[in-house]
Amino acid sequence: MRRILLAASLLLCVQFILAQESDSYLKGEFRAQEARKYQMLAKQYSTLTPGQEGFDVTYYKLDLNLSVNPTNYLSGSVLMVAKVLNDNLGSIVLDLMRAMTVDTVVVGGVPVNFSQQSSTLTITLNRLYAKNEMLSVRVVYEGVPGSSGFGSFAFLTHATASGSAVPWVWSLSEPYGAKDWWPCKDHPGDKADSVDVWVTCDSRFKVGSEGKLVAVIDNGNGTMTHRWQHRYPIATYLVSIAVTDYSEISGWFKYSQSDSMQVLDYALGTNVPQGTTNIASAAASMSTTLSILQIYSDLFGLYPFIREKYGFSQFGWGGGMEHQTMTSIVNFGESLQAHETAHQWFGDMITTRTWPHIWLNEGFATYCVALYYERKSGPTGYWNEVNNNILSGIKGTPGSVYVTDTSTVAQVFSTALVYHKGGTALHMLRHVLGDSLFFKAMRQYAQDPRFRFATASTEDFQSVCEAASGKGTGSLDYFFKEWIYGEKYPSYQYQVAKQKNDSSFTVRVTLNQTTGTSNPSFFQMPVDFRFAGSGLDTIITVFNSSQNQVFTFNLRRDPTTFQLDPNNWILKDVSGTMVNVDKLSALPNEFALLQNYPNPFNPSTIIPYDLAAPAVVRIEVYNALGALMEVLVDNRMLDAGRHQVQFNGTTVAGVSLPSGVYYYRLKASGTIIQTRKMVYIR
Ligand SMILES: [Zn+2]
Questions:
Q1: N or C, which terminus of the chain has less Cβ within 10 Å?
Q2: At CA 431, angle to CA 425 and CA 436, rounded to 5?
Q3: How far is the CA of 361 from the centre of ligand 1 (A)?
Q4: Which of 271, 189, 300, 166 shows the shortest CA–CA distance to 236?
Q5: Is the pLDDT score of 262 beyond 90?
Q6: Nearest-angstrom CA–CA distance, 466 and 507
Q7: Would residue 354 count as lying in a domain?
Q8: Looking at the 3D structure of the chain, how many domains does it have?
């Protein structure tokens, strides 16, 4: 799913829709209202609804009647087939909002007792079921669906050229809204193996939905029944309908010498106000759709639902939603189409197992847009997308990519964290693994039978990357801890010192970082150093694994400029200086705290220490119990080189210390370098 800003031309058709919603939608109060409304529901959804542990859904058939005249109304039935997971299963719970009234529930052909709660339907089964038995439950229900989340069910209209209104009905159930309009086990962790969606409505309308349109039946009473059949696993939030007087257009995705798959778009016809997105823009975008399908098929393996179709149904929500095999979309734009189509692999074929891991859907789709532009127009296309969209707007947002608070849709779908920082994590992972291993990992993830047409977590993706890279289990722990579960990003400070030799230059780079958080306090990362000058332009990648880390290089030409991560492979801030020195060897190679002398001592002793680069220094003295006795150097910025400080046992806070063991500690730029022991004898 992706929200977009509405362009002026769209407002013609969309303002009509917004006018029907309350003004608060426009004032931004919508979000706050949703937050309150969803607090309760979402808590419930951090785990499975109680009463749903005992069965695994294999199939749903929605058989719906949609009435828009004289009033908006939905009635029909849903058949659920499920495998029983526990012995002695006597009752089950489905998710369904109380706004829908259940008339009858039939289990195994027998009418049974049921009761409705605010968001659930409790069903007493006709008998006790044993483990591995199949259970069939048919719920007959009706009502006017409520609308939650991003607008889970919408009875709206679009304008015609003459200004009249035509009914326009669509669903957008992600994340928790399928239960607003149909009874189900509304959790992404339990995919049905297949689904049928039958919709009976006014014969003026077409219905867009999942899979293949296997029949359209004229009922002879001014209605038609549209039978969609989808034979791939699907999560409840990806089941959709989109209904109005659509026009349609077909293209063919030719994926081998002899085989093609239909690409079917439903869009508003030409009888709409000037400037409204309609079938003409769908037609104009068909070649883009085909090339997006080709590029992702090349990268990740063939389009997942190849036996059926792909396509777009135009709807009025301000963005796109990756409904399986038929994305709902507000207008036909290349980057929006590239995002939603990527979801067919990442989101639909492999679905986040629970909402906290939603970056596996949205971060992936966001990053795939950059990969699409790279394949289409080369590195410039990639870097434009990365720098303008993926790396943007992240730094000021606290929190992790992993969603710790799923109580609001705004949190679950945080643009900065889930979309942009999630996408940035993949961008950075590409540099960590290198191109060939990264693309191998992405493809292996998409092809992995454990996750394909199923669900995955962050740990599953990490394990695929570790296996593909050949570096072993746990080798990427640091990366996922930092960038998915951690917050913020590194602020690098470097000092570069260079020395001219007879026929070369010795360069020493000292690297520090601050993170502004304890989660993590340090980002381990491969970091690029670029040295450039006359006849010289080279990038050297180092692995930054500790504070105050010193890297030394010999270069044949004079590096007049130094850049840290010049290509923007890391989300970061950076600052630093470069100095010429006469003799680099006169400078220490590392940060170190040396042994005091004399030792034992009375009354005073000298403490020497080395700084490999300029640093903010603090030196503290503790007694044997760990109590701070004196600060000898208090956060002073000092140059690189050998330094020393005196300690006098008789003048600590104006009194003399008792004899005994004392400890002294060196911190450079906030990092403890070393602690040593000394003995004072009175
Ligand atoms: Zn998305």
A1: C
A2: 115
A3: 7
A4: 189
A5: yes
A6: 34
A7: no
A8: 4
Q: Which pair of tokens denotes residue 212?
A: 């293949």
User: If you average pLDDT over residues 14-27, what whole number do you get?
Assistant: 33
Rounded CA gap, 136 and 105, in Å? 10
Q: Which of 453, 469, 485 is the last residue of a domain?
A: 485
Residue 681 has a pLDDT of 94
Distances 304 to 1, 61, 239, 342 between C-alpha atoms, Å = 18, 22, 16, 11
Residue 313 CA, ligand 1 centroid: distance in Å: 16
Q: Is the dihedral of CA 582, 583, 588, 589 positive or negative?
A: positive
- Residue 330 C-alpha to ligand 1 middle, in angstroms? 14
User: Which whole number is the average pLDDT over 155-183?
Assistant: 97
* Residue 645 shares a structural domain with residue 541: no
Q: What is the mean pLDDT of the chain?
A: 92
- Count other Cβ atoms within 10 Å, centred on residue 140: 17
For residue 339, report the distance from its CA to the centre of ligand 1, in Å.
6
Q: Which comes out higher in pLDDT, residue 352 or 29?
A: 352
Residues 598 and 560 in one domain: no
Confidence label for 671 from pLDDT (cuts 50, 70 and 90)? confident
Ligand 1 centroid to Cα of residue 265, in Å, is 19
pLDDT number for residue 612: 85
- In-domain check, residue 367: no
Q: Within this chain, do residues 418 and 506 fall inside the same structural domain, yes or no?
A: no
What integer pLDDT is reported at residue 46 of this predicted model? Answer: 52
CA distance 239 to 106: 23
Range of the domain at 673: 592-680
Asked if residue 338 and residue 446 are part of one domain, the reply reads no
Distance 366 CA to ligand 1 centre (A): 7
Residue type, position 449, single letter: P
**Ligand 1 centroid vs 421 CA: distance in angstroms?**
14
Using the predicted structure, report yes or no on whether residue 27 has a pLDDT greater than 50: no
For residue 156, how far is its CA from the centre of ligand 1 (angstroms)? Answer: 23
Would you say 682 and 649 are in contact if contact means Cβ atoms under 8 Å apart? yes
pLDDT exceeds cutoff 80 at 437: yes
Q: Are residues 225 and 95 located together in one domain of the fold?
A: yes
The one-letter code for the residue type at 187 is: H
Return the pLDDT at 5: 61
Distance CA 622, CA 661 (A): 9
Supply the Cα-derived Rg of the chain in whole angstroms. Answer: 32
**Rounded to whole angstroms, how far apart are CA atoms 190 and 82?**
10
Residue 322 CA to ligand 1 center (angstroms) comes to: 7
35, 52: one domain:
yes
Instruction: State residue 187's pLDDT score.
Output: 95
Are the C-beta atoms of 492 and 523 separated by less than 8 Å?
no
Amino acid symbol at 642: R
Domain closes at, from 586, 603, 635:
586
Q: Give me the residues paired with residue 531 across strands.
A: 538, 562
Q: Ligand 1: distance of its center to the CA of 358 in Å?
A: 10
Residue 116's SS3 state is strand
Least confident range from 20-29, 102-111, 215-224: namely 20-29
Asked if pLDDT for residue 367 goes beyond 50, the answer is: yes
Distance (Å, whole) CA 654 – CA 642: 29
User: What φ, ψ does residue 297 adopt, rounded to 5°?
Assistant: -65, -40
